[in-house]
Amino acid sequence: MFKVTEAAAEQIRLAATQGGTDGMALRLAATRKEDGSFDYLMGFDDSNDEDISFKCEGIDVVMAPEYVPMLDETTLDYVALEKDNMQFIFLNPKDPTYVPPAE
Where are the domains of the chain? Predict the structure, then answer.
């Protein structure tokens, strides 16, 4: 199951409001690079009949069925990787470059 943290959900709602995309779902996708690592994509979009859709932390999330195997068990978070530099990160144990966060 894909998860969205509370911090990520808050930032997603803010981005939707600022971008005029309120009411649209968050679309997720992933591609595998030549080295085996994943490249993650996200944006606001309408869903279609073939999409897998669910709600997490109040966010409507959609993805095409072909991305489910890569994104299952992933957590989308919004964190400061450097001081004053917040960004979205995908924590995906299926990605060969994944390193679990330090406690």
Answer: 3-91
Identify the three-state secondary structure at position 74: coil
Which CATH topology does 3-91 take? Hypothetical Protein Aq_1857; Chain: A; (2.60.300)
- Quick check: 10 and 78 in contact, CB under 8 A? yes
Specify the residue for token string 């990160």.
Answer: 89
- Tens-digit pLDDT string for the chain (103 aa): 899 999 999 999 999 999 999 989 999 999 999 998 999 999 999 888 999 999 999 999 999 999 999 999 999 999 987 788 899 999 999 998 888 877 6
3-state secondary structure of 98: coil
Long-range pairs for 91-97: beta carbons < 8 A, 24 or more residues apart: 92/30, 92/38, 94/38, 94/69, 94/70, 95/37, 95/38, 96/35, 96/36, 96/37, 97/37, 97/38
Q: State the CB neighbour count (10 A cutoff) for residue 7.
A: 16
